[in-house]
Amino acid sequence: QVQLVESGGGLVQAGGSLRLSCAASGRTFGAYAMAWFRQAPGKEREFVAAINWGGGITYYADSVKGRFTISRDNAKNTVYLQMNSLKPEDTAVYYCAAGPKPLGAMDYWGKGTLVTVSS
Q1: pLDDT tens digit string along 5-58?
Q2: Of the candidates 96, 119, 106, 104, which has an alpha carbon nearest to the alpha carbon of residue 39?
Q3: Percentages helix, strand, coil for the chain, rounded to the nearest 5?
Q4: How confident is the model at residue 1 (pLDDT cuts 50, 70, 90)?
Q5: Strand order across the beta sheet in which 78-83 lies
Q6: Is 68 exposed, middle or buried (0-12, 13-18, 19+ CB in 10 A)?
Q7: How does strand 46-51 pair with strand 113-118?
Q8: Which residues have a Cβ under 8 Å from the Cβ of 3 and sit 6 or more positions away?
Q9: What 3-state DSSP class applies to 24?
Q10: Strand duo 113-118 + 10-13: pairing
Q11: 101-116 burial, b for 16+ CB within 10 Å, e for fewer?
Q12: What is the distance between the alpha carbons of residues 73 and 115, in angstroms, rounded to a whole number?
């Protein structure tokens, strides 16, 4: 079992930055690939970024490539999402997830943290 708790969301102006964190419980954190997803109001949840268990391989949605960076610290059981050059269309609830493969089905989900980008 892995429990995930996101933090770091908030209100930011367009062009600003935020760093989201996802703290995981359980001794097997390092065995999981981790990912961030988001869901904007009235829209379906979408993939944002993913990272393999070792942290050496990352994947990004085209909409965030070059602006967002996913990273992990297995010693701290934490995965991060650094978000720069934020746009109003980045406004969403951001969810952290864990699974066996970066781009596969996720087994565990956090409850989400809200990011609001004002224009």
Answers
A1: 999 999 999 999 999 999 999 778 888 999 999 999 999 999 999 999 998 999
A2: 96
A3: 5, 50, 45
A4: confident
A5: 4-7, 18-24, 78-83, 68-73
A6: buried
A7: unpaired
A8: 24, 25, 26, 108
A9: strand
A10: parallel
A11: ebeeebebbbebbebe
A12: 22
Torsion of CA 85, 62, 38, 33, to 10 degrees: -110
Q: Give the CA radius of gyration of the chain.
A: 13
C-beta atoms surrounding 62 within 10 Å: 6
Tell how strand 113-118 and strand 92-99 pair up: antiparallel
Are the beta carbons of 51 and 58 closer than 8 angstroms? yes
Q: Give residue-wise pLDDT tens across range 53-111.
A: 998 999 999 999 999 999 999 999 999 999 999 999 999 999 999 999 999 999 999 99
